[in-house]
Specification:
alpha+beta; 11 strands; 8-stranded antiparallel beta sheet; 4 domains; about 575 residues
């Protein structure tokens, strides 16, 4: 045979200072810088979104932590509170305290006449305005027959108005002299100056814009049918508006779709319905004290920017609230009702105590079931279960259950706990059972991971000195894995606290007024309460919703902070 000698393969010589290699290195560094820039931009964008959401929640929720009250002197009349003179607690509790509140308000704001006007005046008070006085009378019946200073709870619309959430109020002192024609009813105010000229100009400009809008609409109508009745009606309206706008000295009429214009003069308030450059006519909301001439600077023009038809608080209610605030009878203090009351249809009386207690009761049931069963299942699967197809199937299912949508667990609870076992609906017991099933896979996975993190040498050393397998696990491995297990458990509880979908299926998304006293009482949870409030039309519930979200986020941050603290305090590095 002929020996064949192979030519040795020499490595290709690479010159790192060549133009090709320099260009490749530059491209690599450029790609790395681009990747870092994209990663930083993604983090920055995420931070902006998170901060924006949090700031929006805080901005909307902070007003809910304060509540306005009227501080008035209220005569505690015995003929209303205790007509029998027995001072029976049951009779005192059921007395008509709101009647005393109405009388005190009528005394503080005299001159309001008419059934409708009085009803609107009383509407600034909450239906629970008499609760404070009732509690005082029950605590000390000796105050019956005396006069006490009591904070009266305002309605939600009045509270929102005083917080500046409905309209902006502008008051401009007048430069001329004004003379009112009467003290109540319809009043004409004549000024020596042109105090209303700017408002007249604004109204005339609005008329011009209205004419342009009608002409544009007329063109469209005539294109379809020149003989249509709508075209004739539009022409008549345009002609009337043009004739009116051509008269510079004509008076302009105000309606509820325009910003409210009022005159504060001689201790009263007049809502204007018609104005010209130097005079105005309107109706007295608050009666004037006299018809004397008002000197310059002693009367003013008040404007509510938002039209009355777009506000829950009308001009009369706003005038009364502004007067009471000017008299120093309005007080804004911390809203204890939000933390000490259950839900209510009246926003000013609604609180989160019922939902908080319901959430706590559910978490007690959840942790009492999920923690022991989860840890025991993890110990068995990790240390004692034989490694075969059956245990592998169980492990796969546990991992899959951790990713199952939460509403599936709600359906399971509805079918098993409510329909099969007949447990009470809307009860924290059922909610805790469902949430225990929800967090059980999370606890099992966290416990197994914590046990794997313990060095095998610890168990082997225990076995080497004569400990049984069970003693080695429960006396040595499990205590060292406890910090990780507790961290996973707390995170699982925080997950359960924020769940709403499973509770929807078992009836905990309900209007519950009373605070639950036990595990089988009807209750709701804080996330469900937030969902209920977010669906209500009252503006005050928007602030309540955001405030409840702030409380929920605070509890979740506290629980996650506790998990981090436990991990950092008890964690051991091997």
């Amino acid at each position: 045979m002929t020996d064949i000698t192979a030519t040795p393969m020499l490595p290709k010589r690479v010159r790192f200072d060549s133009e090709e290699m320099v260009a490749r290195v530059k491209r690599r560094y450029r790609s790395e810088r681009l990747f870092k820039s994209l990663g930083g931009a993604a983090l920055l964008l995420t931070a902006v979104f998170v901060v924006t959401v949090l700031l929006d929640i805080i901005y909307k929720g902070l007003p809910a932590f304060t509540q306005h009250h009227l501080v008035l002197d209220v005569p505690v009349r015995a003929d209303v509170i205790d007509p029998k003179g027995t001072k029976n607690p049951e009779d005192l509790r059921s007395a008509d305290y709101f009647a005393l509140m109405r009388d005190a308000l009528a005394t503080a704001v005299p001159g309001i006449e008419g059934r409708v006007e009085k009803k609107r005046l009383n509407g600034i008070l909450s239906s629970g305005a008499g609760n404070e006085l009732r509690d005082r009378v029950l605590a000390d019946p000796s105050i019956i027959g005396t006069t006490v200073k009591v904070p009266l709870l305002l309605s939600d619309d009045s509270d929102i108005y005083l917080k500046g959430k409905q309209t902006r109020v502008t008051e401009i002192p007048a430069r001329g002299t004004a003379v009112p024609s009467a003290t109540k009813g319809e009043i004409t105010i004549t000024s020596s100056g042109t105090e209303f000229a700017d408002d007249v100009a604004v109204l005339k400009k609005a008329i011009v814009n209205r004419i342009a809008e009608l002409k544009s609409r007329l063109t469209i109508v005539e294109t379809r049918d020149p003989q249509a009745a709508e075209a004739t009606s539009l022409k008549d309206e345009i002609a009337a508006l043009e004739a009116h706008s051509s008269q510079p000295a004509s008076a302009e009429t105000l309606d509820s779709k325009m910003p409210s214009l009022l005159v504060a003069i001689n201790g009263g308030l007049v809502k204007l319905s018609s104005i010209s450059d130097s005079s105005a006519t309107g109706t007295a909301l608050l009666p004037l004290q006299s018809t004397n001439e008002a000197a310059p600077g002693k009367w003013s023009v008040v404007t509510y920017d938002k039209p009355e038809s777009n506000r829950k608080t009308g001009d009369l209610e706003a005038a009364v609230l502004e007067k009471l605030r000017a008299d120093g009878k309005v007080e804004n203090k911390f809203n204890t009702i939000f933390f000490t009351h259950g839900d209510s249809r009246d926003a000013e009386l609604a609180g989160i105590l019922g939902s908080l207690v319901g959430s706590v009761l559910m978490l007690i049931v959840t942790i009492a079931l999920a923690l022991p069963f989860g840890v025991l299942a993890a110990v068995y699967l990790e240390e004692f279960a034989p490694k075969n197809k059956f245990t592998n199937l169980i492990e796969i299912n546990i991992n899959n259950l951790a990713a199952v949508p939460s509403i599936v667990f709600g359906l399971l609870g509805l079918a098993v706990f409510l329909n099969f076992f007949g447990l009470p609906r809307s009860a924290p017991l059922v909610g805790g059972l469902v949430l225990a099933l929800l967090v059980l896979p999370t606890i099992i996975i966290a416990a197994r991971a914590s046990m794997r993190a313990v060095p095998p040498s610890i168990k082997e050393a225990a076995l080497g000195v004569g400990a049984s397998h069970q003693q080695a696990i429960f006396h040595h491995v499990l205590p060292l894995a406890t910090p990780g297990i507790m961290t996973g458990t707390i995170i699982g509880m925080a997950h359960a606290l924020g769940e709403t979908a499973p509770l929807l299926m078992i009836g905990m998304l309900a209007f519950i007024v009373d605070v639950p006293q036990g595990f089988t009482d009807p209750a709701t949870a804080l996330p469900a309460q937030i969902y209920i409030w977010s669906d209500l039309p009252e503006q005050a519930f928007e602030a309540k919703t955001a405030a409840a979200i702030m409380v929920l986020l605070g509890v979740l941050l506290l629980m996650n902070g506790l998990a981090i603290w436990l991990r950092s305090k008890f964690e051991r590095r091997w």
